[in-house]
Each structure stands twice: as C-alpha cells, then as structure tokens.
Amino acid sequence: MNFKNKDLANLNVRKAISYAINRKVLCENVLKDGSQVVKGFIPSGLATSSCGVDFRKDSGDFTSYDKAQAQDLLDEELKELGKSEITLRITYGTDESPMDVFSTYLQNALSKLDGIKVEMVATTKQDRIYNKQKNGDFDLAVTRWGPDYGDPTTYLTIALSTNSNNYGKWSNSEYD
C-alpha cells in the first residue's frame, strides 16, 4: 500500500481492505497452488523459539475475513473524509504468475464493497518494481517476498522507513 495516498494513509481504509480479503478462498479456490492462509505478516513455519513454538502462533493472529466489518469501516471513513467513493489502482506484473490471478481476485473482493472503485494497472514486473513502485506511482501493488533466511526479521525489516524495499513509505519511529 502506498502511504502517500491520502485514502490509504487512513487506518480504517486499510483495515477495510484487509477484512475484504477472504484468504481461504484466495488460497484454495483462486491460487490453487498449495498457498496457505496467513494470519499476519510472518508466515507459519518460518521460525520457532528455543521452546519449539512457531513464531506465527506465538505472535497471534492479525488477519481475518469479515465483509460486513470491512463495509462498516469503509462507510465510517468515507463519511469522515466527506467522500462517497475512493478509487484505488492495483498495479501488478502481467509476466508474474500468479500475480495476475491474485490481482483479479483482489479487484473482485474490493469491488464488492460499496464505495471503492478499482482500476487495474497491468505492467511488467520490472516496470512495476523499478518505475512504478520505486517512484511511488501506485496505490496497491501486488508483489511477493520470499524469506532470505529463517528469522522473522527477513520480513519485519521491510517495514523499516530506511529499507529500500519499503515502497509504500510506511513510517513509524517507534517501529524503526
């Protein structure tokens, strides 16, 4: 998500987007490639504590599907923002499977919410990363990240304000 977008800078809009994604349907009925539902930023099976507890289990669940909650959050924020609708662009690489399928799912899921209009921006992976994301020319970018090593920091450092892969420009001094 691009935090320079005023609509996406709003916490409830971001929560609405997250609640609108049925990860079980996405994994089992759309991707159908063995993908597993994630309950937070760190997937299960990446790292365990010295007591043998999976980091994902130890850190709790942070995602769920709830279309009604998504709509309520969106309605509340649209009213506060004085808008009847927001438009979001989903940028994805057409040469990146399964990003095209995922993007279509995301477009459909978000379009089921009253008050969100979705535009698709199809490009190549290289253009998405090195032009659009690098220059902040996106609202939502469909991408992926594979762990470089078996520790949660392989994901958690992406959100540091100084990380060059933090294309959305999320910044939090306490997190840093």
Can you offer a commentary on this structure?
With 176 residues, the chain is of the alpha/beta class. Helix content is 36%, strand content 10%. The protein is built from seven helices and three strands, in the order ααααβαβαβα. It has a three-stranded parallel β-sheet with strand order 2-1-3.
Question: What's the arrangement of secondary structure elements?
Answer:
Blueprint: H1 11-19, H2 23-31, H3 55-59, H4 67-81, E1 86-93, H5 99-111, E2 116-123, H6 125-133, E3 140-141, H7 153-156
Parallel strand pairs: 1-2, 1-3
Helix pairs in contact: 1-4
Radius of gyration, in Å, reads: 17 Å
Shape: globular
- Strand composition percent: 5-15%
Say how many strands there are: 3
Main beta sheet: 3 strands, parallel
- Runs in which pLDDT lies below 50 for 5 or more consecutive residues are none
Order of helices and strands: HHHHEHEHEH
Biggest sheet strand line-up: 2-1-3
Distance between the termini: 18 Å
The assembly state of the depicted protein chains is single chain
Classification by helices and strands: alpha/beta
* Helix content class: 25-40%
Task: Offer a quick outline of the entry.
The chain is an alpha/beta fold and 176 residues long. The protein contains seven helices and three strands, in the order ααααβαβαβα.
Question: What keywords describe this structure?
Answer:
3-stranded parallel sheet, 7 helices, 36% helix, 176 residues, globular, alpha/beta
